[in-house]
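Consider a typical record:
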Amino acid sequence: MAEAADRDMAPGADCDADAETSKGPLTIYLVKQLELAIRSFMDDALRPYGLTTFQYTALTVLQHRGGLSSAQLARRSFVRPQTMHEIVRSLEERGLIERAHAPGNRRIMEARLTPEGEELLTACASAVQTLEDRLLLDMPEKRRSAFRQGLEDGLASLTGWHHG
C-alpha cells in the first residue's frame, strides 16, 4: 500500500489512476529512477576498489579521451566543475591520474590516466560488467539494442551528443 502511495506521489508520475494504468510515469522519471539505481549499485560494486561512481566515470572518460581539462572532464562526466575539481584532486593524490600543462596553453592543465589508473580500471571491469549484465538480464536480446538506441537517441535529442 505504501509503495502505491509513493508511486502516486512520485515526481513525474501521473496523478489520475486511469492515466496511471494506461500511460504510467513519465519516461524522464523512469530514466532518473534507473540512474539512481545504477549509481547505488555502482557505488557498491566499486567500493572494494576505493572508487565512487563519479570517480570511475571520470577515469573512463580519460581512458577514452585523455588530455582533458577539468572543465572538459566535468562536461563529459555530467558533473559541476566544482565537483570535478574535487574528483581530480583525489584521483591525482592517489596517483591514478596526472596533470600537465596543455600544449600551447600553459594556463590549462590537462589530466591523463597513469598506468596505475589503467590497472585499476582493468581490475574494476568485471564488477562493472556484472552490473551491466544484471541490468539487461531479463531483457530479450532483441530489445537490448533497441533499448540502447533509444537511450542514445534521447541523449542526442537533449544534448546534441551523438555516440560513435
